[in-house]
């Protein structure tokens, strides 16, 4: 029977647990999460286990990355299920602070982001988001001091922001992205998929199909304008309200108009019913 991971909820408990894990010069991998874990998170744990000696998973629903109109209060919290998944996966330590530990009284510091955080994608619709993400991830990196940290590519702009932050601030963490894990019909796994009604869930895979069709057309030589317009039309015809559907440089996130300008990433955000979904693929 798998051993239940150590659970730390205070900084002294975290430091004591990490001292034990670092015995014999073990390398530490960190998988930051907000809980409501699914197979995509487990795949990050598996990757971390292949790359490092000991794996820490943080579970913290970060209030600073939610706007007042967003779903912080209703965000799914599934602690017992999460611990069961992490026990089965063989995680060594769960870091589960509450908001008072992460943001104690008088907390007054934040990380300001530029570069990929100002690419006019998620930041256009959630201007508060990356400051909250960078600050909490920066804290997690300094608290856990991992050798490597693992993030899914589904949140592609976030991955680029965190990678740049770790590099710019010399945090000594190698940030590694992992391929998006999908349901059989192509829908990217997400904790927010539980919000989808049965009808919306049946429609949701259109995002992936539209991106694949657009990528196919770009590879075949269609113009960016024609291919992107066709993908956007496919998404809106399915009933989505489109926030953006963009072709960007896979590293800089700069807008692209030619396949000759570098590796292309297609990124989409759209709402169906009450649920906002994001996704992306490489071309």
From TrEMBL:
<keyword id="KW-0963">Cytoplasm</keyword>
<keyword id="KW-0067">ATP-binding</keyword>
<dbReference type="GO" id="GO:0004592">
    <property type="term" value="F:pantoate-beta-alanine ligase activity"/>
</dbReference>
<feature type="active site" description="Proton donor">
    <location>
        <position position="41"/>
    </location>
</feature>
<dbReference type="InterPro" id="IPR042176">
    <property type="entry name" value="Pantoate_ligase_C"/>
</dbReference>
<keyword id="KW-0547">Nucleotide-binding</keyword>
<feature type="binding site">
    <location>
        <position position="158"/>
    </location>
    <ligand>
        <name>(R)-pantoate</name>
    </ligand>
</feature>
<dbReference type="GO" id="GO:0005524">
    <property type="term" value="F:ATP binding"/>
</dbReference>
<feature type="binding site">
    <location>
        <begin position="152"/>
        <end position="155"/>
    </location>
    <ligand>
        <name>ATP</name>
    </ligand>
</feature>
<dbReference type="GO" id="GO:0015940">
    <property type="term" value="P:pantothenate biosynthetic process"/>
</dbReference>
<keyword id="KW-0436">Ligase</keyword>
<dbReference type="InterPro" id="IPR014729">
    <property type="entry name" value="Rossmann-like_a/b/a_fold"/>
</dbReference>
<feature type="binding site">
    <location>
        <position position="65"/>
    </location>
    <ligand>
        <name>(R)-pantoate</name>
    </ligand>
</feature>
<keyword id="KW-0566">Pantothenate biosynthesis</keyword>
<comment type="similarity">
    <text>Belongs to the pantothenate synthetase family.</text>
</comment>
<dbReference type="Pfam" id="PF02569">
    <property type="entry name" value="Pantoate_ligase"/>
</dbReference>
<comment type="function">
    <text>Catalyzes the condensation of pantoate with beta-alanine in an ATP-dependent reaction via a pantoyl-adenylate intermediate.</text>
</comment>
<feature type="binding site">
    <location>
        <begin position="189"/>
        <end position="192"/>
    </location>
    <ligand>
        <name>ATP</name>
    </ligand>
</feature>
<feature type="binding site">
    <location>
        <begin position="34"/>
        <end position="41"/>
    </location>
    <ligand>
        <name>ATP</name>
    </ligand>
</feature>
<protein>
    <recommendedName>
        <fullName>Pantothenate synthetase</fullName>
        <ecNumber>6.3.2.1</ecNumber>
    </recommendedName>
</protein>
<comment type="subunit">
    <text>Homodimer.</text>
</comment>
<feature type="binding site">
    <location>
        <position position="181"/>
    </location>
    <ligand>
        <name>ATP</name>
    </ligand>
</feature>
<feature type="binding site">
    <location>
        <position position="65"/>
    </location>
    <ligand>
        <name>beta-alanine</name>
    </ligand>
</feature>
<dbReference type="InterPro" id="IPR003721">
    <property type="entry name" value="Pantoate_ligase"/>
</dbReference>
<dbReference type="GO" id="GO:0005829">
    <property type="term" value="C:cytosol"/>
</dbReference>
<comment type="pathway">
    <text>Cofactor biosynthesis; (R)-pantothenate biosynthesis; (R)-pantothenate from (R)-pantoate and beta-alanine: step 1/1.</text>
</comment>
